[in-house]
Every structure is written in structure tokens, then in C-alpha cells.
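Reopening this one. Same input as before:
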Amino acid sequence: MSSWWKVAKRKWRRARVRLLSGAGAPAEIAGGMALGLFIAVLPILGLQLPLALLLAEAFRRLTPFHMSRVAAAAGVWLNNPFTMAPVYGLCYLIGRPIAHHLLPASQQRTGAEAGAFDLGALSFSGPGALEVILGLVIGGVLLGLPTAWVGYRITYGMVARHHARREERRARRARGLRMA
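Same output, byte for byte:
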């Protein structure tokens, strides 16, 4: 195995252990991850990480639902330079039909333009710009909700299992010390 792969695996494992071992209940860590995953699919490049941290802190201070800021930051990294094109492409494909029906006829492309998917339509100027932006936002919300829900369930299970194993190890150590 090449050395860069070993280094990447070691860094991934450390990040996963740091996330799972973080302070907070499983619901707090899973909630932060869900928030980060939801924000990751929204088309707000450059604002995703600050928004995730700001919302996690706002939830922590203003509501009884606490969310981990570290987990929220980790969830935002779903959308990175390698996954950006597929994520936003899927958001656009999901949100475009809804945006097309919401906009008045004067803002929509007509005829063969409306049915065909062309990369020229993705420019952010001209008459189709509002449809593209609205399609990305609607698709981001519609894709973000199930992504956040699935991310919450998976993260909660992983963190709860990790905490249970940690407590079990502590209990075994404590029993071993008492018997000696």
C-alpha cells in the first residue's frame, strides 16, 4: 500500500474517533452532523461553514436542543471540491421542475429550451438565471432534508455504540482494579 493511502487512512480514523469521542450526548453530536449535512447541500459556497457554526451556536444558546459545532463543521465537508458537481447537479435536477412551475411564464424558458438540459442554461445571467438559482435552492432543501435525517440516524447509532463500548471498557477496568 502506498504511503499516501496509509496517511489518509490514519487521518480519517483520527477524525472519526475525535468526532465519536467528542463531548456531548449522542443526540447532540448527531444533531450537529445533521445540521452540517443539511447546510452542505445548499448552494451557498463560502458561507456553509460559518453558517453551520453560527446555527449550531444559536441552537446551543437559544433552544434546549444542543448541537455539536464540531460535528456541524464535519457535516459541511460532505460538499467539497470532489463532490460539488454531483451534489449541485442533483440539487438542480430535483429542484428544476418545481422552480419551473413556480415562476411566471415570462421568467421561464419555453419550447424545446425548457425540456432540454444544456450547460448554457446554467449561466447566472439572462432570463433563465432565476429558474436556475431557484431550482438549486429548492433542490438543495429537498435533498438536504433526507440527507440530514439519514446522517442523524447513522451518526446517532455510531456515537451511541462508541459511548457504550467506552463505558463497558471503563466498567471492566474498574472491576479489575477492585479485584486486585
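So the earlier flakiness isn't reproducible anymore. For the record, The chain has a mean pLDDT of 83.
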